[in-house]
């Protein structure tokens, strides 16, 4: 067996093509406590190599030769759960505080669009006529069938079903850069009708800002922060029932909130509907978060490299 020379150090300037450890078909075996540092540049040609390196770094061998698994994802997951809590608290404050509430106009409109389109789809599948439809957050989102008639099943339930399903899917994708890249196309496509449905040019421009931001985030720091945008959009829909009910009770919107609509349609109290939807939102959201943690197990750096494997920026 041919004697292989030891790998050169990463800081060695003479390290280059032709040297051991250079190229794609090389296996480097290290004896602890030897450490080798790889610097991987974000070009598609080197990405595969870096993935392999990262996947192999799943355990370490101590001085006595015992294997020990490295849970390098722990701090990443902790960071993401923290981010989630900050999102929820932040959204609740900004949604309600006088003055800065207008900052949320565009994303409220977007969240109302996701919800109301569920009601509209419900009308279409049950062949009830659509009379009026608004996603204006200042009036409160609403979908009406023929005046004097009430929404029937499934139209009255589908708004909330859409909010929970869309929110859960976005939060799931928000745990991974590559998944967030795919999800961002759905979000971009949804911004277009949201912008188109605005009453005046000013509101249209207001709603074009977050679409512009989404496109911008793709090109800032290799789309590393795209997942926080997607996570934010997801949280908004996941907790739609909370914002919508708060809007009606704190700010007395012209259009009644979803749980009050359900109360008048089903003779079950709004509080019961509120708790039932909230529990369902939480259960679905928890499932999506656990699923994301189980599936996306890369380190922060591995996730970055994987993200660069599709439409690198
Ligand atoms: Zn509704």
UniProtKB/TrEMBL annotation:
<keyword id="KW-0812">Transmembrane</keyword>
<protein>
    <recommendedName>
        <fullName>Peptidase M50B-like-domain-containing protein</fullName>
    </recommendedName>
</protein>
<feature type="transmembrane region" description="Helical">
    <location>
        <begin position="200"/>
        <end position="220"/>
    </location>
</feature>
<keyword id="KW-0472">Membrane</keyword>
<feature type="transmembrane region" description="Helical">
    <location>
        <begin position="157"/>
        <end position="179"/>
    </location>
</feature>
<feature type="transmembrane region" description="Helical">
    <location>
        <begin position="226"/>
        <end position="243"/>
    </location>
</feature>
<dbReference type="InterPro" id="IPR049500">
    <property type="entry name" value="Peptidase_M50B-like"/>
</dbReference>
<feature type="transmembrane region" description="Helical">
    <location>
        <begin position="84"/>
        <end position="104"/>
    </location>
</feature>
<dbReference type="Pfam" id="PF13398">
    <property type="entry name" value="Peptidase_M50B"/>
</dbReference>
<feature type="transmembrane region" description="Helical">
    <location>
        <begin position="271"/>
        <end position="296"/>
    </location>
</feature>
<keyword id="KW-1133">Transmembrane helix</keyword>
